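Lab notebook, bench 4. Still working through the backlog of constructs that have no structural model yet. Next entry is a single chain of 549 residues. Request: give me the structure tokens for it.
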Amino acid sequence: MSLERIRTHHWWRDAVIYQVYVRSFLDSTGDGVGDLAGVRAGLPYLKKLGVDGIWLSPFYPSPQHDHGYDVADYCDVDPLFGDLAEFDLLTAAAHRLGIKVLLDIVPNHCSSAHPWFREALAAAPGDPARTRFHFADGRGPDGGLPPNNWHAMFGGPAWSRVTEADGRPGQWYLHMFTPEQPDWNWRTPEVAAEFDRTLRFWLDRGVDGFRIDVAAGLFKHPALPDSPDPEADARTRDSVNPLAWNRPEVHGVWRHWRAVCEEYTARDGRERLLVGEVSVPTAREHARYVRPDELHQAFFFDLLGAPWDPDAFRKVISEAMQDIAGTGSTVTWVLNNHDQVRTVTRYGEPAAEGSGLGTARARAAALLMLALPGAAYIYQGEELGLPEVVDLPDDVLTDPIFRRTGSRARIRDGCRVPLPWSGKASPFGFTSGAEGAKPWLPQPEWFAEHATERALADTRSFWHLYRDGLQLRSALPQLGEGDLRWLDTPPGVLSFVRGDGLVCAVNFGTAPTPAPVPGTPLLASGPCPPGVLAGSTAAWWITDDAPAR
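Model written out:
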């Protein structure tokens, strides 16, 4: 079999993208916060890992109420992370290594410090400056009640009342996340024009595309009526209110953005990518966002949310292949991101704490994801097998969910703790500051077991599993884009074949006997007895009857 793979298709269709959470990746200045220069310093590590591109979390000027997802200026770099000159150096360095660069863009809402929102606050009710957002009169005799009953996803009502220039209580404005993140009103043409300018600003600087935050948002029902289930968004912490999310008008925005990307591609032949954070109820609705003239990709979160069960995995994979791949796009698989509990912890069970069950399952799931047709996104630290940090003290928590609700349920700080790079004690090489420099979130002592330096030296580590999987994915023509065919398996085992004889199988740990693995083994997520696939393990192999290459 040839180890050279010739890619004649669109690069993004089976790309593996690494999500860089900038403030937690690598700190070059010693202030305890990761930055763009730190990302640039880490590029050789990512090249060695074998990813095709990086997605950078927001680094724009921001008060950091939601760690940069409250943007005050979409066309600059916050001094916390560097400047535009450093961004240009990072982009150029990544391109020299063959690594694409995607930016995180936030079109649903901005920061309350954004100049346009400050202008709106200073303006009178009815002024055009207020039409860029959702300002409305309150209900009740004195307007003291919110305009409708919607709840914010991060807790509390979705409306805040302003004090007018004369000092009296005035109108209310909509914020589906926090009061520091007012929602844009996309029915105002100025908003669309401003984001068109933003796209072109970064495309002109050489970026390869955008990850779009809250891509099913943007438009709200024009009448802003009451919701029959006002607490749905807050209860699920997902965009499920049909009056505020997944409105049909949003597809016109993505058609326009796709046209802008195609315009740049036509100039120089470099394809630009749009990948959306799309949270919708079904794979069929998800598929509408990746039609040929809309987004190139949209994250398919159903695999991330599936329980550790072969029937559940097979169901979500089959639905994605039928509904999403059926549009002509490819499925965009994810197991984790900056908003989710880390995979090792999520797949563990309380009764089995310390047993390594979550680790075994996470390794198997990673190998499964990399064998699926389409693209894959890896959240930083997953390649190190990092568990969630679940015991951060209350006084260091920064997640606005905690500030808004007072509850630790589903907070996100635990997956955002800065990466360990080397050494046996914090800051584990994360910061270049003087001895005693502290990362912005404290790292536990046990991070030493997962440090990059140690992972690179241990061929049995998570890192080597990911690296070997990525190397095979690039070399084997059966992997990447294409289709899959399910195989008959014993209970508790999921198995499929790719191309002309490459098989991926996962024993979910419930099979009564180890599953047979006939053929030539390529890679396994854990130690397996000869010829079998033991519990909570995945493996790739070439079947004996595969055609020679």
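Notes after review: The chain has a mean pLDDT of 91. Residues 250-268 form the longest helix (19 residues). Flag for follow-up if needed.
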